[in-house]
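Onboarding guide, step 5: your first structure request.
Type a short instruction followed by the sequence, for example:

Predict the 3D structure of this protein.
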Amino acid sequence: MTAAPLWIRTGADLERLARRLREASEIAVDTEGDSLHHYPERLALIQIADRAGEAWLVDPLAIADLSAVAPLFAGPSPLVVLHAGDNDLAHLKRRFRFVFGAIFDTSLAARFLGARALGLDVLVREYLGVELPPSRQKDDWSLRPLTEAQECYAVADVRHLLALKDRLLQELKRLGRRAWVEEECAALAAEPPVERRPDPEAYAGLKGARDLTPRGLAILKNLYETRERLALAADRPPFKILSDATLVAIAQQAPGDVAALGGLPGCTPRVIARWGEAILDATARARALPDDAWPVLARPPRPPSVPGGVRRRIEALRRWRAEAAPSFGLDPGVLLPNRLIRPIAETAPRDRAGLARVQGLRRWRVEVLGDQILAALARA
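The system replies with structure tokens like these:
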């Protein structure tokens, strides 16, 4: 019978866990957030498992300082194994300033094996013959205590990761692609976190915003700011206050009373009872603004024109990619991501050394694909 996970709820517990795992060669890590239920989002759970199958549930809501485990992540050992770890890493880097040394992402590895279905449940079933518990991604992971089913789901996400990593590595070695994935994982580990800063023009990005009149834009701006304030006060995600579509509909119609507001999609009796007064106030304040106070949206900048030679090289690279990808059994976007095509076409390297200077290309692409890429450019 599999042992129950051990909860880590105090700084002393966390320090003991860090000491225990210090000598481990690898650990599996996952996280759970509460973005569907709270605002702003918090990291609600960190799951860790070792090679012996022991698992720990670290409660970041109970432990303010997680620095005790920072050294576990920062060095060349233990190897930190994740699945589709982009978001996990971003949260841990941004919130706790963690630095990552050696990681292995099983989802990324599966992509380089040509897998089409990348879900952890699919891969664990295919490679290990194990059925994971039903998904609980929509649960509120900040609630305590977690149910037995939630604990089972959370632990299953890490308990099988190291065995899955072993199987994927076997296949990568067989195909000669281990170094490819290790280089991609190193780049993912080194990627700096994107800081989330408030955008005063975020309302302008809503679908339909640019179709509004100037007065409608003023209403939308007020409504967007009001929704943000209400979401923070209620500790609810903004979409659970009013959807983007509802904001735009209110801005279009500019209702002046509860009856008019109630006729708009998304303005249910419950919404009106809780937030109707604030919605109508935001609308009224915007309607009272003088014309010269209405927001004016800058026209989206025109994308720079692409010179003919660059355009021909882009087309040549895309043709080559479409032809080459099947021979590797890979999705074209894995073989050569779109983000790299234009920089290569603009640089127009003539040799491998020039190709290697294209930022983000990776050494493995130069070594394995370099001659083919250069030939495609030469034909353009």
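Each response can be followed by summary notes, for example: The radius of gyration is 26 Å.
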